[in-house]
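QUALITY CONTROL LOG
STEP: pairwise intake check
CHECKER ROLE: data steward
CRITERIA: each record must contain a sequence immediately followed by its structure tokens, with no blank fields

ENTRY 1 OF 2
RESULT FIELD BELOW
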Amino acid sequence: MDTLLETEKLANFINGEWVEVENTTAVINPATGKEVVQVPLSDANAVDQAVASAQAAQKQWALVPAPQRAEVLYRVGNLLKERKEKLSQLLTMENGKVLEEARGEVQEGIDMAFYMAGEGRRLFGQTTPSELKDKFAMSQRVPVGVVGIITPWNFPIAIATWKSFPAIVAGNAVVWKPATETPIMAYELAKIFEEGGLPKGVINVVFGSGSTVGDSMVHHPDIRVISFTGSNEVGRNIAAECGRQLKKVSLEMGGKNAIIVMDDADIDLAVEGILWSAFGTSGQRCTACSRVIVHEAVKGKLEQKLLTAMERLTIGDGLDESMKVGPIINQAGIRKIKDYIEIGKEEGAKLLVGGHEFRDGAHQGGNYFSPTLFTDATADMRIAQEEIFGPVVSLIPVQSFEEAVEVNNGVEFGLSSSIFTQNVNRVFQAQRDLDTGIVYVNAGTTGAEIHLPFGGTKGTGNGHRDSGVQALDVFTEWKAVYVDYSGKLQRAQIDVE
């Protein structure tokens, strides 16, 4: 057991109590292959208990004034700040991302706590004139009830805060299923909620598999919202079942994000943006750049500068501050990346560098894959269409800005896009025409800020957004309220003079 973690076996957190589960599985540090902790594999009964706890707690929590609910989030934010370094190291141990990235992720949680706490004094509705005399009309946000959140392993604390904090400040109670690969952040965040004074039952953490715990949550009639981040296949199944139940559902799924490099771009800056976007978190981000759409006039120059920069990347255990690229989460991820390397070769793309696993020396025991660059890819190749979720990027040459936009939009996803250019006219055309939920100009495809909506178009999601004030739309219903002080019955539309 690592001294940062006070237990060898995690437990569920239900109704403010730590509930042990007999059946467990090991959490493996992807950088070393060593066990970090045992995580429960809960059954459907645990979900039932968590939902019952949440239902009872939510009725009282909804009656607490929203500014008072926000005070809990302020305390949670301060506790996250106090423990930022410890949390960052634990995150790197379970997830593998390098320490500077882990610190950035914890900071997202801190920022989200304070931002959503501020919404406790807003949660704005609208007042509007009535069409009748002596009548008042307004709308207000009200909580939905019990919310189910299902979060992935690649951002185990940031995404959880995007979902849980707006749900809680809006007056809901939460049942949370974290990824079994990265449960430690959920354990630590539950402790922080407890210390921050959140009433028992408002947050419940149930560890376990998606096929058991996740499925039970999706089918549970008393969970009225499912907020899910993960694969398209699972997301589509969740949407189908939630639709059958008329249950609200928010989906944030895949991406096949591109950086456009025009002929007037600052090439050195573009290289920096590509490196960070493609190889940060070892490419295991829904916003990772896996396509570079480059104007043919600067393709050769960009290619050479990118190859030179990639040679300087250091690959290893993320707890070593000199490392820039950490491991892949598990061997299944490695196998998927290897399969796509072979697909790219068979399709005719030229492999310039990488394409192999590291298994010896300092990398022994871990899941390390070399940063990989294909060139002369075409827009219709599978490596240019399908999400790989690894440190693999493909250069696609184009002849014009219009072709670049067409290639960018010609995938099933629509999460993030980027353009490097110094032409202000093209900047405004790009932000209008690029069919993605996030557009960056002269920056990479990653780096979203918590006060703006996060999500995408097409196959990336179903129209809802995490983060920003728009996240409140997922976790609230709109209620229209009419107050007639005329002292007589007035019939809308009929009695309008």
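ENTRY 2 OF 2
RESULT FIELD BELOW
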Amino acid sequence: MTATATTIALDIGGTYIKGGVAGPDGILRHTERWFTGADRGPDAVLETVIAAAAQLVREHRPSAAGIAAPGIVDELAGVSVLAANLGWRHLPVRGWLTDELGLPVALGHDVRAGGLAEARLGAGRGSRNFLFVPVGTGIAAAHMVDGYAQIGSHSRAGELGHLVVRPGGEACPCGGRGCLETIASAAAIARRYAHATGETDATAKDVGERAAAGDPAAATVWREAIEALADGLAAAITLLDPERIVIGGGLARAGEPYFAPLRAAVAERLSFQTMPQIVPAELGHQAGCQGAALLAHDLLDEDGTAAP
């Protein structure tokens, strides 16, 4: 690959679109962001994505682009099947951006892109079989095997947050009840603490700190979230037998007050299964964008031109 070959990347989130430029090694060198403005409707969001990508193309003259999108993504077809927070349904994102930019474009799922980045550059390095589990507003997973995410037969693999861990429990936007996401996500922790105390401005980080300081309501919410996540991870371990679990998202920054009880709770739930390493992700909020850059990088031949 030539020394001048660069790629651009976009990670489309509900609040921000994160953008970046990567060098010939696929590693991000420059990042910026734009407001998604999802409340303006799906067409306006797409226009913002195209405008952001076009800006990066004008400024950096890349050889390829990578896009990471949320929801259900058919990577092979290049289609956003469903991104509820963006209002996208069956949107041919790859084709439209290819036409607009005049470049080869790779479309990936945001969590699977994050798993790819952690596999090559982060906490998944050296592991042939691991789970990347971002715990933030929601919960999802990417099952990484030999450096690649398993997508499933219908592009829906990895919906760990919608594994039912408390049957008959709280209603979930997916239509189920008692999904892991309704108890163990950062949004759920803040919501459940607000319900218990009436305090509506506490974040999941606040709840964790208050739990450590002895706040009974916070301790209960924190413990229940960790126990629910342990139930979900124990099920995933039983099915997939990963050697490592990489926890990402905002709660990964909570440190040992989160990881120590989580490891203990998972271990308590296992019998014949082998306990995997449970470690924090290394790439933080850049994982999705970095993964999109790697997807773009993989489109190029050794001379820095688009592969046929």
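INTAKE CHECK: passed for both entries
DESCRIPTIVE NOTE, ENTRY 2: The domain at 123-282 is CATH 3.30.420.40 (Nucleotidyltransferase; domain 5).
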